[in-house]
Design a protein that fits this description.
The chain is an alpha+beta fold. It has ten helices and eleven strands. The chain has two domains: about 20-60 and about 180-285, 3-Layer(aba) Sandwich (Beta-lactamase); about 60-175, Beta-lactamase (3-Layer(aba) Sandwich), CATH 3.40.710.
């Protein structure tokens, strides 16, 4: 009888802590996005009340630069196991040069040196692609990073670029792929100090809290609030995942693909929608 009572108590706790849909918020977001010209996925997690909003949240989307969270995990895993040191100096050579984008690292002179921590900062803060590809290699490459993601329970988040066997996925999704729910879960696990170790997760959170690209979702959050963010953009896909540590903390992700508006102006349809969604959520949770 006692065992039955304990089991019933456990089940009650699990049910009470289970994530429930925030119906009102779901309706508001559905109305907000109804006229979007493209495919869209959104996941919102109310960390205080364990409520969620899920719209195409398990659909796979291109990550664009959000793939750099996966690369960061790979580097932190190497640091955790003593294969890399956060403050070690690295030798930059012309073989690492990457011509696309407005990268800082690509302007380095051959045989220059730079600290690993600063390469990580460049990857996350300004989304430097030269730094990111260098770090992907230092992490062991896409196969090693994907194996780590799989071991951590992430089944949909993968690195495709420069990863043997993933050429078909790369042609469809580009550098990386994920789902709105899973990338938000990864951010949540970083916040909860569950990825690799407490120390690694805390460092990841600090690094993700230093974002140069702050004119979309971040622009709707007051400057005094701690946030951790990564966004990504290519012509037909604009994405962002954001943790907001306010009195009612929350995480949300918005992913788009097959966008009709491929412009790079501030009034790009997906970016305007991202700002509107972020403003709606800030008001809702505060």
């Amino acid at each position: 009888m006692k065992k039955i009572f304990v089991l019933a108590l456990v089940l009650t706790c699990l049910i009470s802590n289970a994530q429930k849909t925030d119906v009102k918020l779901q309706q508001q977001i559905t109305e907000l996005i109804k006229d979007f010209h493209g495919d869209i996925g959104i996941y919102v997690h109310d960390l205080k009340h364990h409520k969620t909003v899920s719209i195409n949240a398990d659909t796979v989307f291109p990550t664009a630069s959000i793939v750099k969270i996966s690369i960061l995990a790979g580097i932190m895993n190497k640091i955790q196991h003593g294969e890399l040191d956060y403050h070690q100096r690295l030798l930059y050579t012309d073989s690492l040069y990457y011509s696309e984008g407005d990268d800082i690292l690509s302007n380095f002179k051959d045989s220059s040196t730079i600290e690993l921590s600063k390469v990580m900062m460049l990857m996350l803060t300004i989304s430097d692609n030269c730094a990111s590809l260098w770090l992907q290699g230092l992490a062991g490459g896409g196969l090693t990073i994907n194996a780590l993601l799989d071991s951590l329970g992430y089944k949909n988040t993968r690195v495709n670029s420069r990863t043997p066997g993933r050429e078909t996925y790369r042609s469809q999704y580009g550098w990386g792929q994920t789902t709105p729910r899973e990338i938000a879960t990864i951010m949540n696990d970083i916040v909860d100090k569950k990825i690799i170790s407490t120390e690694a997760s805390e460092k990841m959170l600090r690094l993700l809290g230093r974002q140069y690209w702050d004119e979309e979702a971040l622009s709707q959050i007051p400057a005094g609030i701690f946030t951790a963010d990564k966004n990504g953009a290519v012509d037909e896909s604009r994405n962002e995942v954001l943790y907001v540590n306010c009195k009612n903390p929350y995480i949300f992700s918005i992913f788009t693909k097959n966008n009709k508006d491929t412009s790079w102006n501030a009034d790009n349809e997906a970016w305007v929608l991202t700002r509107k969604l972020s403003a709606l959520l800030w008001k809702h949770f505060n």
